[in-house]
Amino acid sequence: MIRSLNARMVARLAAVSALTVTLGACSSTNLPSLSSNTEPAPTEPGMAPEMPATIRADEIVGRWGLASFQNPADRARTEAAARSQCKQPYVIGAGQSGGVIMHLADQATPQELRLKGSPSGKNYIGPPGPTPGEQDREIVSFDGRVMITRFVDKDAATRYGNMVYVRCGPRA
Q1: What pTM was computed for the model?
Q2: Where are the alpha helices (DSSP H) in the chain?
Q3: What tens digit of pLDDT does each residue of 95-152 get?
Q4: Which of 28, 75, 155, 165 shows a CA-CA span of 20 to 30 A to 146?
Q5: CA 113: distance to chain centroid?
Q6: What are the extents of the domains in the chain?
Q7: Left (φ > 0), alpha (ψ -120 to 50) or beta: where does 18 sit?
C-alpha cells in the first residue's frame, strides 16, 4: 500500500512538473506575426523616440545667472534679475557621457541630463527616455547668451515658471 501511494505521488509530481514546463514554454514562445508591418511599436502616445537636439551640450555649459517669471510681460525685468545673479552663478557642467550636469525639478543633487530633439523641432533637456518626458524641460528659446526653459510636468511648470538663464561673462 505504501508503495502504491509513493508511486501515485511520483506520478502526480511528474505530471505537475510536465505541465509547468509546458505552460512556461508557452509564455516564452514568440509566435510569428501575421502582419507584414515591420515598423517598431510606437512609444506612449504623444511621445517620440529620442533624437538629437539642434543645440549641443557644449553650447550651454558654463556659468549662468538664473531667475524665473510666470507672466511673459515680466521677461525683460527677469532677464535683468538673472544677470544680477552672476555673483552666485548657476553652473551647468559638462557630463561624462556628452550631456550636461543640471538639477531635475525638486532634486537637490544635480545629475547628467541629455539634450534631446523632437520631430516638431523643439529641444529638451532631461534624462534618457522618450521625448518629451515628464522630467524634461523644453528649451523655449536660446540665442547663446539667454536661454529660457519650461518644465514639461504641469506641476513643476507652475511652481518654477519660465526659467531664464543669462550667460555670465564671455561665452565659453
Answers
A1: 0.71
A2: 2-28, 57-60, 75-84, 154-160
A3: 999 999 999 999 999 999 999 999 999 999 999 999 999 999 999 999 999 999 999 9
A4: 155
A5: 8
A6: 51-167
A7: alpha
Cell of 21: 514546463
The residue type at 62: G
Report whether 160 contacts 154 (CB < 8 A): no
Per this entry, what is the length of the chain? 172
Q: Which residues contact 163 (CB under 8 A, 6 or more apart)?
A: 66, 67, 68, 137, 148, 149, 150
Which residue shows C-alpha cell 539667454?
A: 146
Bridge partner residues of 134 (DSSP): none
What are the grid coordinates assigned to 92, written together?
A: 551647468
Per-residue 3-state assignment (H helix, E strand, C coil) for 102-158: ECCCCCCCCEEEEEEECCCCCEEEECCCCECCCCCEEEEEECCCEEEEEECCHHHHH
Say how far apart CA 130 and CA 159 lie, in whole Å.
23
